[in-house]
């Protein structure tokens, strides 16, 4: 593959052409390009990317079009340029090689955390999606592949001290294409999610993005459903902090996550289930334990546990027992032991980590189901590897150990494949290969992964060994095994060599990686490698009725229980790395080496020491030397001839022979030492960059000469063309002018001739018209005279046959026609069916006035009947009550108008719900019509006392409200009548027959808040019982009979408002005055 040359960019675009080549010149070149926003630099086919920590305008569609099918000298290095002649490097070269050469490709993106690996992988996938074919199926596959990124980032990325969007898992995606280069689908493999982050992260970092996105972007209804609070400070697993991340909108990212899951193919139920399981993990951190004794513990607060169990549909006692105890099987016996408080917290955290890890694996499998290829046709594969960068922290644990082991393997494949590719190219081109010395990190890989004596093998052996096993025994074993290994250091081995190293603690060891020395703290190595989850917890999760959570723990099924020890985390990761390396070796590699310019994540800040250390452990200088071994630059003959052919007269402007011969003729004509050149089978090789720069300078001078010649030729051609155009224009204008003058003269003559012809034709036509009109008039006159004469003769002949009553029949016919017309018009103009609509069309003729009024009445009666027929029985009863009240009070009492909007309830006391009134219910005997509270006016002093008013089908009862005992029972037939005033008061007089048993006390003076309803129901009940109407008198003065005699009661309207109740005043011994409103 050909190297890139970019002489028109800042610095040197390809480090292979850097002269002189030293570490300092390489650093200066990278810094100079970085300061000028040139973040991409090549080393042959390897792209070096420096994280700018700011958005740059180099990823637009316009930029992409500039890089497609463009000469490689004309563009700057880019993450998506090809390293061949057509630009748009790593992604474009990989894609074109896959499509045109049928070679499986892989893009390896490496670098430490925060160097921009995740963004680089996104750009590669975006470019592939942009340049491949179109179509509904292709667009759907591209959308699903691209939308998998937001989902995996939300659940697998987190903020670390070095990176705001650090991938805490390794991802390798195989994108499969058809023979046209259109994507068919893909497969995603994930490696070692950092699940310990779920339960613990250092201050200044964050947990996985999904927790903050769910709390910030979830709707209030969703959070209520998940039993969550929006404040991050409520959750222990979030360090009870509410960190705000600059430049990251968690709420918007949550909405993007939901859209991405929908685009991939997740159903709404699956999305809800995933969020519920995520909420369970978050809430597990709030489960607190309390000591139940020296050797046991219990749940401190049941509310959190209850909410978790409600979400996963599990009995609280099952989960509580699984968290606070452990079942051990020994010799076919089960022994239940209680856990200490520390063990309880360990079990809780282990459950949270396992749920989240299994949920993440389920998400990857679910995405794979949707993007997998279902066809059996031949497929091509492009792999994109985005995996953890090399990590060196203050405190490095088991996670950093296996992450750095993976990076060692990637460095090994990078060196071997780069050398292999370089050597194969030399052999293929027939050029003598010069062996290159390089650092082989196989010794470090063997130190870690050797099956018999490697650190991982000894860690597994220590985990399986019976007896007391801890970090100290593991470290002692390492010290004994690797005491003479030059890449392994610890305090014990250093002391044995009489070397004092204060940076090594007693519980740590150090490995000299290719990237530098890393000290690992062995605390937690055994536990994290075992990664044990108590069987009780697995069985409890399997018992949950939550479908997704149940499916994540198949080993919890008692029917499938196995006592086989699960594989350790280290062995699983090692097997995954072996599979990954085998996959990468089978594909053509393309490299992106990412560099972090500073630790503060600020743009334009270039920390020399930090970048220099990365340049060293990435082996960039060594990579440049490998590329420059023998010959620094190589290019295919055809593009080389095309670029430099203007330097030789024999090859300019066209060469008719082969491209190889043309290049030989071209370079032989120039003063270049033959030792600087080597002619391969398909490419020209140039030894030093100085020769290439000399070629470029000669080309630049020659181009300037050609430009001047082209300009001179162009201006001569332009002005000659201008003169010819002016001459042609003058001839054309003359011809057009003469033609225009003749056409104008002809048009005038033609217009005159036409005008004369028109006048002549008009005169002839008018003369003919006059003659025709005269002839027509004569004909009409003769016809009319003939008709009148014939009519006269006919009338004279048939006059004797005419009837004397013809005028009457004609009159009837005319009236009948008018009536018919009236009815037809009325049919089309009938008013609406609303009973309150009194509109009616007027009579068109005076003789129809009475008929029109009668029809109006008939239509109104019919319309009212239709309205009554559609009423329900309850509504009819209500309207009948209101009609009865209208007949009794309308236009008589002012209170009636106020009672119209008030519905008649009948029962105002709540007898059924009050046991105090049980005896009154018995008295009513199921025939109750109305129950209300009234006030009885004392005959002696005019004061009012409360009474309960009960109206039944046969009696009227007045009862004491305190004792709930009937005091007066009046038969309905003994009621003579009722007297009321015309005002808006509730005062009325109940007149009783003298022969009645209740007449011993005389008539009753009562006050009611529901006077209209009370008297209406009394009237209806008496009419129904006695078949007689109630006598109602509306007057301002009436006579009331009492036991001692009669008094006159006069209703007087008060001048001022006296309150809601009428006021009774005694005026002498035989007069009572009632003040009403």
TrEMBL record:
Residues 577-599 are annotated as: Actin-binding. It comes from the Eukaryota. ATP binds at residues 111-118. One of its GO terms (molecular function) is microfilament motor activity. InterPro entries: IQ_motif_EF-hand-BS, Kinesin_motor_dom_sf, Myosin_head_motor_dom-like, Myosin_TH1, MYSc_Myo1, P-loop_NTPase. This is Unconventional myosin-Ia. Residues 893-1077 form the TH1 domain. Pfam families: IQ, Myosin_head, Myosin_TH1. Keywords: Actin-binding, ATP-binding, Calmodulin-binding, Motor protein, Myosin, Nucleotide-binding, Repeat. The keyword Nucleotide-binding applies. GO terms for biological process: actin filament organization; actin filament-based movement; endocytosis; sensory perception of sound. Belongs to the TRAFAC class myosin-kinesin ATPase superfamily. Myosin family. It comes from Phrynocephalus forsythii. One of its GO terms (cellular component) is cytoplasm. Residues 10-700 form the Myosin motor domain.
């Amino acid at each position: 593959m050909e190297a890139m040359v970019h002489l028109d960019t800042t610095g040197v675009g390809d480090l292979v052409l850097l002269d002189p080549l030293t570490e300092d010149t390489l650093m200066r070149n990278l810094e100079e390009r970085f300061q000028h926003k040139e973040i991409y630099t090549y080393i042959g086919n390897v792209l070096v990317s420096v994280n700018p920590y700011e958005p740059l305008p180099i990823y637009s569609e316009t930029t992409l079009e500039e890089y497609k099918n463009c000469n490689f000298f004309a563009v700057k290095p880019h993450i998506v340029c090809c390293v061949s002649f057509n630009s748009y490097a790593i992604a474009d070269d990989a894609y074109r090689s896959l499509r045109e050469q049928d070679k499986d490709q892989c893009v390896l993106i490496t670098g430490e955390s925060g160097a921009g690996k995740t963004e680089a992988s996104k750009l590669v996938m975006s470019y592939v999606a942009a340049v491949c074919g179109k179509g509904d199926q292709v667009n759907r596959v591209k959308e699903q592949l691209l939308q998998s990124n937001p989902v995996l980032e939300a659940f697998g990325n987190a903020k670390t001290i070095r990176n705001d969007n650090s991938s805490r898992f390794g991802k390798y995606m195989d994108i499969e294409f058809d023979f046209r280069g259109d994507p068919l689908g893909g497969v995603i493999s994930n490696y070692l999610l950092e699940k310990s982050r779920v339960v613990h992260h250092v201050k200044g970092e964050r947990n996985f993005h999904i927790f903050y996105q769910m709390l910030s972007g979830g709707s209030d209804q969703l959070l209520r459903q998940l039993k969550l609070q929006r404040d991050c400070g409520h959750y222990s697993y979030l360090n009870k902090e509410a960190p705000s991340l600059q430049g990251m909108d968690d709420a918007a990212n949550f909405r993007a996550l939901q859209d991405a899951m929908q685009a991939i193919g997740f159903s709404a139920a699956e999305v809800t289930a995933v969020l519920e399981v995520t909420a369970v993990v978050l809430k597990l951190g709030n489960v607190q334990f309390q000591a139940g004794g020296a050797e046991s513990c219990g749940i401190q607060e049941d509310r959190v546990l209850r909410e978790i169990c409600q979400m996963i549909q599990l009995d609280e006692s099952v989960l509580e027992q699984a968290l606070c105890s452990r079942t051990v099987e020994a010799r076919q016996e089960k022994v239940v032991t209680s856990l200490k408080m520390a063990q309880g917290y360990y079990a809780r955290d282990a459950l949270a980590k396992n749920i989240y890890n299994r949920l993440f694996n389920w998400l990857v499998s679910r995405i794979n189901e949707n993007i997998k290829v279902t066809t059996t046709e031949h497929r091509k594969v492009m792999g994109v590897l985005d995996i953890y960068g090399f990590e060196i922290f203050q405190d490095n644990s088991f996670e950093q150990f296996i992450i750095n082991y993976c990076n060692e393997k990637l460095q090994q494949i990078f060196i071997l494949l780069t050398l292999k590719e370089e050597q194969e190219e030399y052999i293929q081109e027939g050029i003598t290969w010069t062996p290159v010395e390089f650092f082989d990190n196989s010794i470090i890989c063997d130190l870690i992964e050797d099956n018999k004596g490697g650190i991982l093998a000894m860690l597994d052996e220590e985990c399986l060994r019976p007896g007391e096993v801890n970090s100290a025994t593991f470290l002692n074993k390492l010290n004994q095994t690797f005491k003479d290994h030059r890449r392994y250091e610890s305090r014990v081995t250093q002391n044995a060599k009489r070397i004092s190293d204060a940076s090594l603690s007693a519980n740590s060891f150090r490995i000299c990686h290719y990237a530098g020395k890393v000290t690992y703290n062995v605390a937690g190595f055994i536990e994290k490698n075992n990664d044990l989850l108590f069987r009780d917890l697995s069985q409890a999760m399997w018992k949950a009725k939550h479908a997704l959570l149940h499916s994540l723990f198949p080993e919890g099924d008692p029917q499938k229980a196995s006592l086989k020890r699960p594989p350790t985390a280290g062995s699983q990761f090692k097997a995954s790395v072996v599979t990954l390396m085998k996959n990468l070796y089978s594909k053509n590699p393309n490299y992106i080496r990412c560099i972090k310019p500073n630790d503060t994540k600020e743009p334009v800040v270039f920390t020399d020491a930090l970048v220099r250390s990365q340049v060293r452990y990435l082996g960039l200088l060594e990579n440049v030397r490998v590329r420059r071994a023998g010959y620094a630059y190589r290019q295919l003959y055809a593009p080389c001839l095309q670029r430099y052919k203007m330097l030789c007269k024999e090859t300019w402007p066209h060469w008719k022979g082969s491209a190889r011969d043309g290049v030989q003729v071209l370079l032989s004509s120039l003063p270049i030492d033959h030792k600087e050149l080597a002619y391969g089978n398909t490419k020209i090789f140039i030894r030093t960059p100085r020769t290439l720069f000399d070629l470029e300078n000669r080309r630049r001078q020659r181009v300037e000469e050609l430009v001047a010649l082209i300009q001179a030729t162009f201006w001569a051609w332009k002005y000659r063309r201008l003169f010819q155009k002016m001459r042609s224009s003058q001839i054309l204008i003359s011809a057009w002018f003469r033609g225009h003058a003749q056409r104008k003269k002809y048009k005038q003559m033609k217009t005159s001739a036409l005008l004369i012809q028109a006048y002549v034709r008009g005169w002839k036509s008018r003369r003919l018209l006059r003659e025709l009109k005269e002839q027509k008039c004569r004909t009409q006159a003769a016809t009319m005279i003939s008709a009148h004469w014939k009519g006269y003769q006919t009338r004279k002949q048939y006059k004797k046959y005419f009837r004397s009553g013809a005028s009457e029949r004609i009159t009837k016919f005319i009236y009948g026609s008018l009536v018919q017309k009236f009815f037809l018009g009325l049919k089309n103009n009938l008013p609406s069916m609303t009973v309150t609509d009194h509109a009616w069309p007027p009579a068109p003729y005076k003789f129809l006035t009475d008929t029109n009024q009668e029809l109006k009445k008939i239509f109104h009666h019919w319309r009212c009947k239709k309205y009554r027929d559609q009423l329900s029985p309850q509504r009819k009863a209500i309207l009948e009550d209101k009609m009865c009240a209208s007949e009794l009070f309308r236009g008589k009492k002012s209170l009636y108008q106020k009672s119209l909007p008030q519905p008649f309830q009948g029962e105002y006391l709540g007898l059924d719900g009050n046991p105090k009134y049980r005896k009154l219910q018995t008295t009513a005997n199921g025939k109750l019509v109305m129950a209300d509270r009234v006030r009885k006016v004392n005959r002696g002093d005019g004061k009012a006392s409360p009474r309960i008013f009960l109206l039944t089908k046969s009696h009227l009862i007045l009862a004491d409200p305190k004792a709930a005992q009937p005091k007066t029972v009046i038969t309905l037939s003994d009621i003579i009548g009722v007297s009321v005033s015309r005002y808006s008061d509730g005062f009325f007089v109940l007149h009783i027959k003298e022969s009645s048993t209740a007449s011993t006390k005389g008539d009753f003076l009562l006050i009611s808040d529901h006077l209209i309803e009370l008297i209406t129901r009394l009237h209806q009940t008496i009419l129904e019982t006695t078949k007689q109407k109630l006598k109602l008198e509306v007057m301002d003065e009436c006579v009331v009979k009492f036991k001692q005699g009669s008094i006159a009661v006069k209703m007087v309207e008060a001048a001022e408002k006296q309150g809601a109740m009428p006021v009774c005043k005694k005026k002498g011994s035989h007069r009572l005055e009632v003040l009403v409103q």
